[in-house]
Amino acid sequence: MATIKDVARLAGVGLGTASRVVSGKGSVAPATAQRVQKAIDQLNFRPSHAARSLLSGSTQMIGVYIPLLKGTFYTPILQAIDATLRDTRRHMVVAFGHGSEDERDQAIEGARFLIDRDCDGLIVMGNALLEKDIVELGRQQPNIVVLNRVFESIREQCFSADHAQGGVAAAQALLGKGHRQFAVIAGPRTSPDNVARIAAFMGELARNGIPADAVPMIDSDFSPEGGWACTHELLERGIPFTALFCANDEMAVGALAHLQQVGISVPGQVSVMGYDDTQTAEFSAPRLTSVHIPLREVTVAGVHCLLNRCYGETLPIARDYPIGVTWRASVEAPPRL
């Protein structure tokens, strides 16, 4: 395999001149550049990734940390990151946790792993990180962007939909169908976006005369298994409800499955609403009504911000992410008694 030294020797130029032609940085006389390019073509020279990094001072790689490589939430985000980076001929390295009790340690370790691999910037997701963790990581790599979370120390580098608005939209949609008896399957209380949507949902119910203590609620883990188990527990409690709000689509699908298992018709007897509007919602049975969170738009804005910081690009950065409800078959008016 030919090296940059071989190119320089064949072209009859110094190594520095050949390097400037390959990197596209620095001034080289046109005739000399032409000789170097001819040598590159003749030798079929292709610089390695390490060589390009040395020549440019940049790896052209972005590090991405996600807490869990599972389910339908993170996959579209990774796809959006990859597609946006490839549009500018850059790529990503992904590190991820495995969702156990030491989630914060996993996130810090994963981010440091990416920094140690000389990634030009970081995209970070995760509920366990603290403000002081972000500050410390920022000292090691100032080019950092956070998705689906807001840290005050780097607010302009954080990109998230308004989950409080999402919670209000869910409540208004169900109230608008005439529901007055509710149950809720919430996500983990350690998840700020979950806390925001559930608080807003309950607040909107309260504004419409339905106090929080009249709404049975169980915390779960955003998984289908959690949705199944929580639905079983809600039914065991014997408190009647006609509308079930689940804090993500994965739990809602688990709820749908359990309701079908025990012979409860959706939406004939109970309406079920999810959150996020992932592909899961589109292909559940019945198809799931869900609060639409524009995850792709949020992700692209974050990637654009990072590319602008890392490489001096001037890509547009959206800050307004409209939230709505995608109506499907799982929500209807409550049954007439």
Give the full name of the CATH homologous superfamily of the largest domain.
Response regulator
Strand content: 5-15%
Structural class: alpha/beta
Shape: elongated
Tally the helices.
Answer: 13
CATH topology of the largest domain: Rossmann fold
Assembly state (oligomeric): single chain
Helical residue percent band:
40-55%
N-to-C terminal Cα separation, in Å?
80 Å
Number of strands: 11
Radius of gyration: 26 Å
Low-pLDDT parts are none
Total count of domains: 3
CATH architecture assignment name of the largest domain? 3-Layer(aba) Sandwich
CATH class (first level) name of the largest domain: Alpha Beta
Read across the widest sheet, the strand sequence of neighbours is 7-6-8-9-10-11
Mean pLDDT: 92
Largest sheet: 6 strands, mixed
Order of helices and strands: HHHHEHEHEHEEHEHEHEHEHEHE
Question: In words, what does this structure look like?
Answer:
The chain has 13 helices and 11 strands. With 337 residues, it is α/β, with parallel strands linked by helices. It has 3 domains: 53 residues, 434 Repressor (Amino-terminal Domain), CATH 1.10.260.40; 99 residues, Response regulator (Rossmann fold); 131 residues, Response regulator (Rossmann fold), CATH 3.40.50. The strands form 2 sheets. A 6-stranded mixed sheet has the order 7-6-8-9-10-11, sandwiched between helices. Helix 11 links the parallel strand 8 and strand 9.
